[in-house]
Specification:
With about 475 residues, the protein is of the alpha/beta class. The protein has 22 helices and five strands. Helix 1 packs across helix 4, helix 5 packs antiparallel against helix 6 and helix 6 runs antiparallel to helix 9.
């Protein structure tokens, strides 16, 4: 079975922006307007829980930023949408032009750095500088000797002082070394290597590198998105934060750390000890903090073509909100709903007769069981074993639409009044009887619902059809 998580590939980023799948296009533009106003050395924490779509968000911001940079920069022939088929690329360009009217003059260059991908290295600075060069070299003219000299000098320093095989860094250094010699018009590698022994000199080299980088990119401010820092091993994460603070602050550089700050606090405590104040440490390292708005399940459902006011959309959105599902978990939840439950929302699906009682269980209980399976495994076991009435009561109380949903759950062919009466108290009493009959094998009083009958056999039918047998 393939993973159901939508990865932030170029194709998926384009689809997300073109269709505004996560309803975040307006958020992205506000975020870029905020970044546009920043001056001097600046570090921003973009705070969101694990699985809330931070990587998608910063990669979208990076894509939009570099598209606008391309439009505003002179003498540059790079193309942001080259990886996409022509028709998709054109749709993306049209959408970007449409949503970016308020920041059309944005002239900032974005760089994306995956910290977790690089945390096997002993020194974060090396991989960060390498990433910066890799993501800018196509947009800097090869005749720009001042930048080539600075970049190659940094790479030569790093390649000589790295422990172990870092051939990718050394390789780039060798490719640039001829240009470096030509730019300096002499051979002073030894002097540069000796200077690396002095931290003050290394800091000066890095500052010069950033200055030359900004100038080579048409004088643009540079925004470096550092992602997945909260997933890194503690030594790497803390060392990177301290290098940002002591080496990498520059007048034309903004760092955006997309992190779950609560998780990052735990990482810092693992490095310094449990008594250490991780929150205060982060506050000293960043200049500002922005909170990422969570994505509601109904936006994903609407992207699937479901109406915002239909039973299925309201129920799934309520369940995702009640259990606090992240974007990643919501995507998994919806995928299981599509495969195992949604087909049964149509009675007599595939010519298999589904009784009114079965139909109700599939429409009402199945999504709840699936949500419990993802959000509260212990609660799931209690629910299936007949000890989950309190869970169901709490779910009913959590939504203003719960009784409306309960009555709608009987489907287009059921009689709401026959099933659940006319008051909320009466509906809750009937639901209690149904739950106990299905999940606790309690005797069903036939007289209550005019011929309808519920029993433990329905639980077996339910678990089999949604593939949650325990």
């Amino acid at each position: 079975m393939k993973s159901t998580v939508v990865e932030p590939t170029t194709d998926n980023l384009a689809d997300s922006i073109i269709n505004d799948k996560f309803k975040r296009n307006s958020d992205e533009i506000r975020f870029l307007k905020y970044l546009k106003e920043l001056e001097g050395p600046y570090t921003v924490a973009l705070d969101g829980k694990w699985g809330t779509g931070k990587t998608f968000y910063v990669k979208e911001a990076n894509l939009i930023m570099n598209y606008l940079w391309k439009k505003n920069a002179e003498d540059n022939d790079s193309k942001v949408c080259d990886e996409l088929p022509p028709d998709i690329g054109n749709q993306l360009k049209n959408k970007l032009d449409e949503i970016s009217q308020d920041i059309i003059d944005l002239k900032q260059y974005g760089i994306y750095y995956d910290a977790w991908k690089n945390d096997y290295q002993s020194n974060p600075l090396y991989s960060l500088i390498l990433t910066i060069i890799e993501q800018t070299k196509m947009n800097i003219h090869k005749s720009n000797f001042d930048f080539m000299k600075s970049a190659t000098g940094i790479l030569l320093i790093l390649s000589q002082f790295l422990p172990g095989p870092y051939s990718e860094i050394i390789g780039i250094g060798k490719q640039l070394v001829d240009m470096y010699k030509k730019a300096r018009n002499d051979d002073k590698e030894a002097d540069i290597l000796n200077s690396a022994k002095n931290e003050k000199k290394l800091n000066s080299e890095i500052q010069e590198f950033f200055s030359q980088l900004s100038e080579a990119l048409s004088g643009s401010r540079i925004v470096i998105f550092i992602d997945e820092l909260d997933r890194c091993n503690p030594q790497f994460a803390v060392r990177l934060l301290e290098q940002l603070k002591h080496y990498l602050r520059h007048e034309n550089i903004t760092f955006v750390l997309s992190v779950d700050t609560m998780q990052l606090q735990h990482t810092i405590k693992k490095f310094y000890g449990e008594g250490y104040d991780g929150s205060l440490y982060i506050d000293k390292m960043v200049d500002d903090k922005i909170f990422l708005r969570e994505i509601r399940a109904k936006y994903l459902l609407e992207a699937d073509g479901h109406q915002s006011d239909e039973y299925y959309t309201i129920l799934i959105n309520d369940l995702a909100r009640y259990f606090g599902f992240s974007l990643r978990v919501t995507e998994k939840f919806l995928d299981r709903m599509r495969k195992n439950i949604l087909p049964y929302y149509v009675p007599h699906h595939n010519n298999l007769y589904v009784s009114d009682e079965n139909y109700f269980c599939l429409r009402f209980f199945a999504p709840i069981l699936l949500a419990l399976n993802y959000g509260d495994p212990n609660g799931y076991n209690d629910f299936v074993n007949g000890n989950g009435w309190e869970i169901l009561q709490n779910l009913m109380m959590s939504s203003k639409d719960s009784y409306k949903l309960l009555r709608k759950s009987v489907g287009p062919f059921g009689n709401e009044t026959k099933w659940f009466g006319t008051t909320n108290d009466e509906a809750l009493d009937k639901l209690h009887l149904i739950y106990m009959a299905v999940f606790n094998d309690s005797e069903w009083p036939d007289s209550i619902t005019n011929g309808l009958s519920f029993s433990g056999d329905l639980k077996d039918f339910l678990l089999k059809n949604i593939q949650l047998e325990k």
